[in-house]
Amino acid sequence: MGLSLSYLERACFRPRSVLKAAAALALFLPTVSQALPIFARQTGFNCVACHAGGQFPELTATGRMFKLTGYTTGKRVAIPLAISGQANYTKTQSATNANSLNRGVDFPKDGAVIFQMASIFAGGKILDNLGLFAQGTYNFYDHVNKKGTWVGRFTIDNVDLRLADRIVSPNQDFIYGLSLNNNPTVEDPWNSTSAWGYPAISSTMAVVAPVSPLLNGALTQQVAGLAGYGYWKQTVYAAVGAYTAATNGPLSVLTQGVSKLNRAKIAGTAPYWRLALTHASGPHDFMLGTFGMLANVYPDPMNQHGPTAAYRDIGIDGQYQYILDPHTITVQFNYTTESRRWDSNTWNAWVAAPDPTVVSHRSARFNQLNLKGTYAFDAGKLGTYGVNLAYFQGDGQRDVNWGLGGFFDPVTNTNSATPITGSRTNDPGNRGWIAEVFWKPVQYIRLGVQYWNYNRFNGASNNYDGNGRRASDNNTIFAYLWGIY
Questions:
Q1: Which of 56, 57, 194, 326 could be 378's S-S partner, Cβ–Cβ 3.0 to 4.6 Å?
Q2: Which among 127, 138, 297 has a CA at the least distance from the CA of 214?
Q3: Per-residue pLDDT tens for 130-180?
Q4: DSSP string of 51-82, one letter each residue
Q5: How distant, in Å, are the alpha carbons of 323, 351, 368 from that of 210?
């Protein structure tokens, strides 16, 4: 619950999650007087000062100011490190389908309690105007090798190195700075954009919709960029930046551990922008903003000399917070529209694919909407209780360019779509909701249960993959336990 936890906690919440046994968590539970991570130790603040309802990673106005001023409030910590651990349990509604009964491959660790990951954090005040947030994570279940054995991997997660200053006078309040980071929107101080958006904790073992805008995760920890920002009279926030692939040279450390096969390679430099208007009145805090990025991306991540696809992401978002002890309410929305235009060679190759049922377009569009509301109640010695309700929806035209493999041949009665994750119609549409309850008995432990419900998946409610699978078969229960010191 503190100034510091949002970036530590946020980071440790990256799409990896939690719930093991008390014995595993005991590694991370020191005495109460010692239980504050880096930033809280630096500032002396409690979690609720910087996190809405103490629910990391959601920032309060105080937490946002701490981030904007470069993580430099307070005194330098002698050992600016923290560690965390996450354990979890994932259960999918249906772990079978018509063509594949191999639960271990299609639904790894389904119904099993696993110790998912451990992270180390470094950060805080370096100089009076220079601060850092950095996380490295070891995922014990990163991928399965050719022998069918799970292999772990260490990766560098979100990194944010800031140089910042503030000009304050009776008639002026201006914060400005630079952020060197490895994830577009990571510099943003609100929780409605993708880098720190909901859900910060989610299952890596669940089936999720395969299509989303580029800004909503495809560039995470795969690029390096520099963004300059300013915040005038706590009313107008603006940031502009540029990102490039960080595969070689000194900046490649920012993508350490990311599989080459999973990297989205940017050709040249991709510009990024952000603009937000804010207003605070008593316990109420409002934000309305827009953001976007233009990028040329190699469709084949292993071929950086071939054709590229032009992406344009533009979004609008907003956030409302009501904080008046013991109640906290946060409401957020994010709507992103993405256009993709493939180069002529790639487009012609896809058009030549034997798919008479789906029209291929050189340009395609995908729109994604996310809504989320949170209520948290501070019960004093009994800890903090809360609930999150979220709605998500993605829509795009039917197109072979999404790579979902949809093609049904009535002559051979076969379907080219990948079972479970494919689409028989090449429709990327998805729709559903998430319900979550959580409890923080103390500020360095969080327990929660999420329920993911799909009404539509890859374009249909029933038989979306051509192999008889329903969208509701991907409904998931996810329970987690998270600790940090």
A1: 326
A2: 297
A3: 999 998 999 998 888 888 788 898 988 889 999 999 999 988 999 999 999
A4: BGGG-TT-B-HHHHHHHHTTS-SS---SS-EE
A5: 36, 21, 13
